[in-house]
Design a protein that fits this description.
Oligomer: single chain
Number of domains: 1
Largest sheet: 8 strands, mixed
Structural class: alpha/beta
Shape: globular
Protein name: PIG-L deacetylase family protein
CATH superfamily: LmbE-like
Low-confidence stretches: none
Helix content: 40-55%
Order of helices and strands: HHHEEHEHHEHEHHEEHHHEH
InterPro entries: GlcNAc_PI_deacetylase-related, LmbE-like_dom_sf
Length: 279
């Protein structure tokens, strides 16, 4: 009797080293072959579309790169995917559905929108939109957000998309990738030909193959992060980001300045890597 191919594949995976059994690890090895990260001292594109799951992700993860792009005359547009209404630990302890909690969520969402606009001004970014999905439920609103992103891909025609890397340990951050893929499917191959994706790090350090030297614009990044005062009240993001960006500089630029790290790949490769994580 013939052995079903699925059984054979499973047996081969069990007999292989752990890095072969893990589909994502195997794909990364094949894609990277342990090359050192590419170091850029200029923006990584001329038309950058940035997907920020929450107001503050754009500043924390890639604010220096965005300010660098603006200074170089590149076009930058930021899309805030959710309204950030759950970004307060005390608020989340209130009874769900209560009038007090609903009022607090609406107030925080409005405040965070104002903070986002101030942060973009600090970075020099003028183009933006708010997709309005509820914080914490981006995946449930994937279709609605993708419907908003698809026209941007068709009409605005970015050459580079920045978003949280698919390995970032936050449900909304992972869902941002699904929103992009769904929008790409809606926009069609012609609108996305040649598109490069840069996965950025926010909640989790990533497997970086590209770093951007942001020392020249790091003061802008600090000012942008400071604009998100509601989020700094409970977490010292400034100190955390300073350490991460200094580490990225040390590990890739001989110890000088500040750098932001990305997992960069052409859209088809990036999507294949993300799908390996789900395999």
């Amino acid at each position: 009797m013939a052995v079903p191919w699925r059984w054979l594949a499973a047996a081969l995976r069990r007999a292989s080293p752990h890095w072969v059994r893990n589909a994502l690890a195997a794909e990364l090895i094949g894609y990277e072959r342990w090359r050192p990260p590419e170091v850029l001292h200029a923006p990584p594109g001329r038309r950058l579309l940035v997907l920020a799951p929450h107001p503050d992700d754009e500043s924390i993860a890639c604010g220096g790169t965005l300010a660098l792009a603006v200074a170089a005359g590149a076009a930058v547009q930021v899309v805030f995917l959710t309204d950030g209404r759950l970004g307060d630990a005390a608020l989340r302890r209130l009874p769900e559905g209560s009038a007090g909690r609903r009022a607090a969520e609406e107030a925080l969402a409005a405040r965070r929108q104002g903070e986002a606009l101030a942060a973009l001004a600090a970075l020099g970014v003028t183009e933006h939109c708010f997709a309005g999905a509820p914080d914490g439920a981006l995946r449930a609103h994937l279709a609605t957000v993708a419907d908003q992103l698809a026209p941007l891909l068709v009409q605005w025609r970015p050459d580079t998309v920045l978003l949280p890397c698919f390995t970032d340990r936050h449900a909304d951050h992972f869902a941002a990738n699904l929103c992009l893929f769904a929008a790409v499917d809606r926009a069609g191959p012609a609108a996305c030909a040649g598109l490069r994706v840069l996965g950025y790090e926010a909640w989790s350090p990533l497997y970086a193959n590209l770093v951007v030297d942001v020392d020249a614009t790091y003061a802008h990044k600090r000012r942008a992060i400071a604009c998100h005062a509601s989020q700094l009240a409970g977490v010292d993001y400034l100190a955390g980001v300073e350490g991460l960006n200094r580490f990225r500089a040390i590990s890739s630029m001989a110890g000088c300045g500040h750098a932001e790290a990305f997992l960069a790949a052409p859209l088809p490769t990036y999507r294949r890597l993300a799908e390996c994580l789900l395999a």
